[in-house]
Amino acid sequence: MSSKAILEQSVLAEVESADVKKSERPRAHGRAASIGLTREQVLNAGVSLIDEVGVEGFSIRELSRRLDVYPAAIYWHLGGAKDDLLSELSATITTSILSVDELCDDWRDSLRLFAHRYRAASQQHPHLANLIGAQLSSNGPSHAALSEILLRIIRQAGLDGQPMIDAMNMLIGSIFGYVTMELAPLPNKRDRAWGSRFSESLDRLDSVRFTETRRALPLLRNKAFALRWTNGADVPLDGGFSFLIEALIKALEAKKAGD
After folding, report:
1. Apex 90 CA angle, 86 and 92, nearest 5
2. Whole-number Å distance between alpha carbons of 32 and 83
3. Per residue in 127-136, pLDDT tens?
């Protein structure tokens, strides 16, 4: 073998050895990893991961892989367990909806602004919206900004004591419940024929037993809860949501008037 060939083989071996060492280099973890990693980076990466794979596909292992750190570095910033991280991730929606400084002079306008902003944010991150409504563990101190805004609106509406508690539960249950149902995930994204089968099953409903449903079907088809096969990300239910908010405002007004 010529000296040139020997030299080329030697250089190639050195390069391959360096590549192996680089690939085997341990990722940073614990406090060392936390130095170059911020809480905001963890949350942003977590939101992106859930947007992509949903809550079911989310894992600390995959999140740490994408951030190129060990799981310990993620817990260093957010602490606790996976449920705590999910709570923090879902709070990225609720903490940015409305600030105290943005509250309107009229509590009714504040409530409208809050509700429509929450729905708009949820439409951008439907998996996170479903997480808020579906898992109790996603509640907690991380959502304190949400309760603070709603309580200020409720107090401005003149309610306190038990009526305040009832109003809080009514608003969260109604607004968040509507959005969670509207953005409910499809049963199987790979089953492209599911929508067609659903639509055809509606046409087979018994006209005697389901008289009103069959009568209203041309209007409600794929535009109403229980009669749709497309979620609100593609076919938003705007009218019903606006109707709901105005009904909630009337309910709070009636509660105050009845005191």
Report:
1. 120
2. 24
3. 888 877 665 5
